């Protein structure tokens, strides 16, 4: 019995040391930034991991495989959400912001998410740059072009366009832009954990470290912050 008690104490000591190491590794104000005041989330009952992104953002495209790994690594108490950015009109971001919000309202945004990146940056039909020169194309995809992409997900072109041009999506665009301002987002991709903490791959120290840091902040929230 005494031996078992000693083993339990040792396990608690190891766990405490690991927690202390995590706390020492991640520095508020350097690796992540606290939002004052904290912002509301869209995933009640869950610890939200919000991806602020644009399909037309090359850095977001490069980060997407890492975000998929992060999504798979999250505990059941956490849930991802998405916030499309539009602050780079020269790269067609407003069109893709509108497209995501329309797709979200039609229930096809998440299932088509990775495929949309491929449509813009891979073999798809919604490229914004020339594959050889990497220069921006003179004619960017329109919302009508994007509508054809979603037909593969059972959405009729006319239904998609009606939603994309609706008052609902117009209102959500204004809300999305206001939310980014409130969360002090000035680059993409940016991650917001539970409306309280903002970070980027740069502040975390790299892609792999981003996963570690988000899991640390999720655990921090789970334990009461």
Explain what the structure shows.
By secondary structure, the chain is of the alpha+beta class. It has helices spanning 2-25, 58-73, 93-105, 113-121, 143-149, 157-164, 167-182, 201-204, 207-222; strands at 33-34, 47-53, 78-84, 190-193, 197-199. It has a five-stranded mixed sheet with strand order 1-5-4-2-3. Helix 2 (58-73) links the parallel strand 2 (47-53) and strand 3 (78-84). Helix 2 packs across helix 9 (207-222) and helix 5 (143-149) packs across helix 6 (157-164).
Features:
225 residues, alpha+beta, Glutaredoxin, 5-stranded mixed sheet, 50% helix, disordered N terminus
Number of discrete domains: 1
CATH class category name: Alpha Beta
Radius of gyration equals 20 Å
Helix content: 40-55%
In terms of structural class, how would the helical and strand content be classed?
A: alpha+beta
Largest sheet: 5 strands, mixed
Find the CATH topology.
Answer: Glutaredoxin
Strand content: 5-15%
Distance between the termini: 35 Å
Let me know the number of strands: 5
Poorly predicted sequence stretches spanning 5 or more consecutive residues: 1-20
* Reported CATH architecture: 3-Layer(aba) Sandwich
How would you state the average pLDDT, rounded? 91
Strand order of the largest sheet: 1-5-4-2-3
| CATH H-level superfamily title | Glutaredoxin
């Amino acid at each position: 019995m005494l031996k078992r008690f000693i083993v339990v104490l040792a396990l608690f000591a190891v766990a405490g040391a690991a927690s202390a190491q995590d706390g020492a590794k991640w520095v508020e104000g350097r690796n992540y930034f606290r939002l004052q005041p904290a912002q509301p989330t869209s995933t009640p009952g869950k610890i939200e991991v919000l991806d602020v992104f644009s399909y037309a953002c090359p850095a977001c495209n490069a980060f997407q495989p890492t975000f998929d790994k992060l999504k798979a690594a999250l505990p059941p108490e956490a849930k991802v959400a998405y916030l499309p950015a539009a602050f780079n009109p020269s790269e067609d971001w407003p069109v893709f912001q509108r497209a995501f919000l329309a797709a979200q309202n039609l229930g096809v945004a998440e299932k088509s998410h990775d495929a949309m990146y491929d449509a813009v940056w891979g073999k798809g039909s919604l490229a914004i740059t020339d594959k050889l020169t990497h220069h921006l194309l003179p004619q960017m995809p329109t919302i009508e072009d994007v509508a054809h992409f979603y037909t593969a997900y059972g959405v009729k072109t006319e239904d998609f366009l009606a939603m994309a041009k609706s008052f609902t999506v117009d209102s959500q665009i204004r809300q999305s832009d206001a939310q980014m301002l409130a969360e002090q987002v000035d680059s993409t991709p940016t991650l917001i954990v539970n409306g309280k903490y903002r970070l980027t791959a740069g502040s975390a120290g790299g892609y792999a470290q981003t996963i570690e840091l988000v899991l640390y902040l999720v655990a921090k929230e789970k334990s009461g912050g």
